[in-house]
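Pasting as-is:
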Amino acid sequence: MNLEPDHSDAIRTLVLPDILLNRIRSAVRTLTVSTYADLPGIDTRARRITREPLLTQLRDAIRPDIGRTMSGAGSGRPIPLNEGAYELHTSIEEDISSAYEAATDLPPTGTTEQMLADWYEAFATAHATGETNIAQLENYATRITGWVTAIEDMFDPPRIREYPICPVCGYTHTIRDDAAGDPIQVRCLTLRYHPTGRAIATCRHCHSRWEGTITPDGTTGEITELHTAIQDNIDQHGPITLARIAPTHLEL
């Protein structure tokens, strides 16, 4: 059974750098820039709200407002610590500080958001002058979108759905280490979706990505295209009865 993609590696190499850089840029903006959203069902004059950058939300979650209210300014009682938010923020901050220092030759300074924004400007400039390569783009795209996912999952835990095959690279499974460090076989293509319906599917091997919405009445956006592509692949090659294990050189 041939499940290899029809397009060539040469075509993938031509388009992948720009796709990855756009993915990095989008993730950096989500982490560092305030956005606006409309609240449904409210008078239009008061519908628009401001959402703080994800890194700001994460830092604020370390010492929640309710803790300051409960403890009181002069009570001497410690403000409760959200250990999960603290550990995640510390890990991300260390990675950003290291990347910032390597890209700018300057010691880490300023907020985490500012360092990440400054790092991206330096990285985008290096990319424009041909000083980056596919491996670096893939590494940062995976790391930075991973930060977005980890923060969003903390605030809004997703549900997980597995798919039988990635229609882009044709692999069904790959090998990853479990919590104990032992190698296990996992599906390449998984979809994470939230109660709001927002959904993102990614392949652990080739990093293909689809976004859309899952509703009781069906799907929208690229998620619909993903379902169609999977079904077309199965219709063409038959039922998936054989696991094709992807190599482990690309980490998610």
